[in-house]
Design a protein that fits this description.
The protein is mainly α. The chain has one domain. Helices cover 76% and strands 0% of the residues. It has 15 helices and no strands. The protein has helices at 2-31, 37-58, 70-91, 96-103, 106-118, 124-141, 151-172, 178-196, 199-203, 211-217, 225-251, 254-257, 264-276, 282-305, 311-323. Helix 3 (70-91) runs antiparallel to helix 7, helix 3 (70-91) packs across helix 8 and helix 4 crosses helix 7 (151-172). The longest helix is centred in the first third of the chain and has 30 residues, at 2-31. The protein is globular.
Length: 324
C-alpha cells in the first residue's frame, strides 16, 4: 500500500512538472516575436544559475560545484545549449502540439545513438518500434509537402542534441551530481549566448526570413518590465520543474512514472487552442500516436531488461537533461 501511494504521489509530481515546463513554451512563443532567442536564453540562464547553486546546497554540498571531467561537462553543456536554442527556434514557427509530437522522437533517437555510439544491443522488436516511431515523425514533419515547415527541422535538431547529451550523462552520472551538471550547463549557456550574440549585428535582420531564422538573428532589444519578468521567470520555471521531476522519480518507480511524461502533448494541445486557437491536424495526431506508442514500447523493453534498483538513477539523470 505504501509503495502504491508513493507511485501515485510520484506520478502527480511528474504531471505537475510537465505542466510547469509547458509554461516555458508558452512564454517563449508569446514574446518570441520581439526578441532574439539568444537574448532570452541569456536572461533565463542568469536566473537559472543561482537556482543550480541552491540545488547544490540541497545536496549537502558547499562552495561552487566542481568536477574532474570538465571536457565532458562543457561538451554536454554545449549540446544542451544547441538543443535548447533550436527548440525555441522551432517554437517560433510551429503549433505547440506539433513541437511536443516531434519531441516524442527523443526515446527513439536515444535508442539509436545508444547502438551507434555505445554499442548497446537492440533486438528486432525494438528495431521495429524505431521504424514505426520514425514513420510517425515523418507524418508530422511531412517533408516535401506543401505544408512542410522548416521549424520541424529545428525541433528534430533539438532532439538530436538532447539525445547526444544523454549519452554523455550516462558517463557523468557516476561521478557528478545532477546539480553539478545543471550548474555547468547553465554556465555554458551564458558563455555560448554571449559569444554568439554578435551574429545579430553581423548578419542583420531580414524581413523575409523564416520565423525560426529571424528569431536567431533578431537584434537584441531592451525588454519591457513585463517581458523582462517573463524572461527571468523562465529560470524559475526550470527550477520548479526540475524540483518536481526529481521528487517524482524519488517517490515512484521510473517504469511507472516515465510514461506520464507524454501528458505534455495534451497539455500543449490545450494551451495552443486556448491561447492561439491552434488545432492539431489529423496527420499530427496520427504521427504523435505512432511516436508515442513506439517510445512507450522501447521504454517498456528497456525497463524489463534493466534491474529495478537502477531505475531511479537512470531516469532522474536522463530526465534532468530534458529541461536543462
Amino acid at each position: 500500500m505504501n509503495k502504491t501511494n508513493s507511485n501515485i504521489q510520484g506520478v502527480g509530481f511528474l504531471v505537475l512538472a510537465m505542466l510547469i515546463f509547458s509554461l516555458q513554451n508558452i512564454a517563449v512563443k508569446w514574446i518570441g516575436g520581439d526578441y532574439s532567442v539568444l537574448e532570452i536564453v541569456t536572461f533565463r540562464s542568469l536566473i537559472a544559475m543561482p537556482c543550480t547553486l541552491l540545488f547544490y546546497r540541497y545536496e549537502g554540498q558547499r562552495g561552487l560545484p566542481s568536477t574532474q571531467r570538465h571536457k565532458l561537462e562543457y561538451v554536454r553543456g554545449f549540446f544542451l545549449f544547441l538543443s535548447y536554442t533550436t527548440h525555441f527556434m522551432g517554437l517560433a514557427a510551429l503549433p505547440l502540439a506539433d513541437v511536443e509530437s516531434i519531441r516524442f522522437s527523443a526515446p527513439l533517437m536515444i535508442t539509436l545513438l545508444s547502438v551507434v555510439l555505445l554499442g548497446e544491443k537492440v533486438g528486432p522488436r525494438r528495431w521495429l518500434a524505431l521504424v514505426v516511431g520514425f514513420m510517425g515523425i515523418l507524418f508530422i514533419v511531412r517533408p516535401g509537402s506543401a505544408t512542410f515547415n522548416i521549424g520541424s527541422i529545428f525541433i528534430l535538431i533539438s532532439v538530436l542534441f538532447y539525445a547526444l547529451s544523454v549519452m554523455i550523462i550516462r558517463k557523468l552520472q557516476t561521478t557528478d551530481s545532477s546539480a553539478t551538471m545543471a550548474y555547468y550547463s547553465s554556465l555554458v549557456y551564458l558563455m555560448a549566448a554571449f559569444i554568439l550574440a554578435p551574429l545579430a549585428i553581423v548578419v542583420g535582420e531580414s524581413p523575409d526570413a523564416h520565423p525560426s531564422i529571424a528569431f536567431l538573428f533578431r537584434a537584441w532589444a531592451m525588454p519591457t518590465l513585463l517581458d523582462w519578468l517573463i524572461m527571468s521567470g523562465l529560470g524559475l520555471v526550470w527550477a520548479g520543474g526540475m524540483y518536481f521531476m526529481a521528487r517524482a522519480y524519488s517517490l515512484a518507480l521510473a517504469s511507472v512514472a516515465a510514461p506520464f511524461e507524454y501528458v505534455s502533448l495534451p497539455i500543449s494541445v490545450v494551451w495552443g487552442f486556448v491561447i492561439w486557437q491552434e488545432i492539431p491536424t489529423l496527420m499530427t495526431l496520427a504521427g504523435a500516436f505512432l511516436a508515442l506508442s513506439s517510445g512507450m514500447y522501447i521504454l517498456y523493453r528497456e525497463r524489463k531488461e534493466r534491474p529495478v534498483k537502477v531505475e531511479h538513477s537512470d531516469a532522474s539523470s536522463g530526465n534532468a537533461a530534458r529541461s536543462t
